[in-house]
């Protein structure tokens, strides 16, 4: 896929002076690095997933203004505006594009390789929420409705079961059973949310490890990226998605289940890093639900991948048949390890 000329024009970038290269392992958007005199990250937003991209822009504007005023030292990667002062430019097919500064000497990783890395990344995600304490949450809207609402995802799974093609049902039979066996997590989620134990805050909502930018030399986390889902949520979503993506030495694409482990030192480091900032913010009774967060987020992702497989791979980007089933199987295996680990604690 090529970047439309009008996008470069809108930002005043001379296409011929730059090297444009597709990057990233994201499942939703198309991301490019534009390397010229200055370098940028250019991204085409998936309009099918983010049906109202203007909400992304307005949430980021709110956050950016608040942080600028209250935490000016905090690195927050806002978008670069077009020559006309817009946060996004729409191409002829109605897809919005946006531009970010490329920060030199930084890297992203798809798997955590040390406890220091886990601590540092988790602390960085926590800082984002902590620094946004005091911002008016009512000014932030959901960029995707009911994004981590487990009850809603369960309903979508039920709908997919009814509508799926028989071949897909057959292929996924074992994983469907696994998914049903963990439905107690849905009940627990309902309970927890209806008792209003968890406080809504501004969360990142997509805290997988590759959404942290690390300083290449020191290995320290610099800032959180991929802020499309910066919106109201519960802290268990963020700490949970970190548990899901940090503790296993391999990511969700791994087919060989024997490579998946629950790495206790990494788990401890990420919780320590997260709590080093969030302890000041969380209520005592919220803190008891960290392990539930890990299980719930692993479950919701496993279920969404399975649902997408049953629906015919319409949501996540896939490159081969059965990829969503591979991801889902991987995540259910991890979930089972997590359950075992937490129950023995
Ligand atoms: C999607 O695009 P990416 O990879 O950052 C998804 C997340 C999932 C993740 C699973 C908007 O994020 O919720 O955790 O895939 N984002 C959206 O890898 O659905
Ligand atoms: Mg994302």
Care to give the gist of this entry?
The protein has 345 residues and is an alpha+beta fold.
Q: Mind explaining what this structure looks like?
A:
The chain is an alpha+beta fold and 345 residues long. 44% of the residues lie in helices and 12% in strands. It contains eleven helices and ten strands. It has helices at residues 5-11, 53-70, 115-131, 150-163, 166-171, 173-181, 184-194, 235-246, 264-278, 290-310, 323-344; strands at residues 19-23, 30-35, 39-44, 89-90, 96-101, 106-107, 201-203, 212-215, 221-224, 231-233. The strands form three sheets. The chain has a five-stranded antiparallel β-sheet with strand order 1-2-3-5-4, with helices on one face. A three-stranded antiparallel β-sheet has the order 6-8-9. Strands 7-10 form a two-stranded antiparallel ribbon. Strand 4 and strand 5 (96-101) form a beta hairpin. Helix 3 (115-131) packs parallel to helix 9 and helix 8 crosses helix 10 (290-310). The longest helix is centred in the last third of the chain and has 22 residues, at 323-344. It is globular, with a radius of gyration of 20 Å. The mean pLDDT is 96. Bound molecules: 2-acetamido-2-deoxy-1-O-phosphono-alpha-D-glucopyranose and magnesium ion. 2-acetamido-2-deoxy-1-O-phosphono-alpha-D-glucopyranose (GN1) binds at residues 26-28, 49, 206, 208, 226, 252, 301. The site of 2-acetamido-2-deoxy-1-O-phosphono-alpha-D-glucopyranose has 9 residues, from loops.
């Amino acid at each position: 896929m090529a970047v439309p000329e009008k996008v470069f024009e809108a930002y005043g970038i001379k296409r011929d002076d730059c090297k444009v290269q597709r990057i990233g392992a994201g499942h939703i958007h198309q991301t490019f690095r534009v390397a010229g005199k200055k370098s940028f990250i250019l991204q085409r937003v998936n309009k099918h997933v983010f049906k109202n991209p203007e909400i992304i822009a307005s949430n980021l504007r709110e956050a950016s203004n608040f942080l600028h005023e209250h935490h000016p030292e905090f690195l927050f990667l806002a978008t670069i505006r077009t020559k006309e002062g817009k946060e996004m430019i729409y191409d002829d097919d109605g897809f919005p594009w946006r531009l970010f500064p490329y920060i030199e000497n930084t890297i992203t990783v798809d798997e955590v390789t040390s406890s220091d890395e886990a601590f540092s990344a988790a602390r960085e995600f926590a800082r984002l929420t902590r620094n946004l304490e005091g911002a008016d949450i009512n000014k932030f809207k959901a960029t995707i409705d009911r994004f981590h609402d487990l009850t809603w995802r369960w309903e979508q799974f039920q709908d997919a079961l009814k509508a799926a093609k028989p071949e897909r049902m057959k292929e996924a039979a074992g994983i469907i059973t696994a998914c049903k066996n963990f439905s107690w997590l849905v009940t627990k989620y309902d309970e927890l949310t209806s008792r209003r134990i968890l406080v809504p805050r501004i969360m990142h909502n997509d805290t997988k490890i590759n959404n942290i930018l690390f300083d290449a030399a020191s290995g320290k986390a610099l800032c959180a990226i991929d802020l499309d889902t910066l919106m109201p949520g519960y802290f268990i979503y963020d700490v949970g998605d970190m548990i899901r993506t940090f503790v296993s030495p391999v990511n969700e694409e791994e087919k060989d289940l024997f490579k998946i482990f629950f790495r206790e030192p990494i788990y401890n480091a990420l919780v320590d890093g997260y709590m080093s900032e969030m302890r000041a913010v969380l209520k005592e009774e919220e803190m008891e639900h960290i392990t539930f967060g890990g299980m719930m987020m692993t479950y919701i992702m496993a279920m969404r991948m399975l649902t997408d497989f049953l629906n015919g791979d319409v949501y996540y980007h896939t490159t081969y048949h059965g990829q969503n089933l591979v991801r889902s199987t991987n995540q259910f295996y991890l979930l089972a390890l997590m359950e075992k680990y937490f129950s023995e604690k």
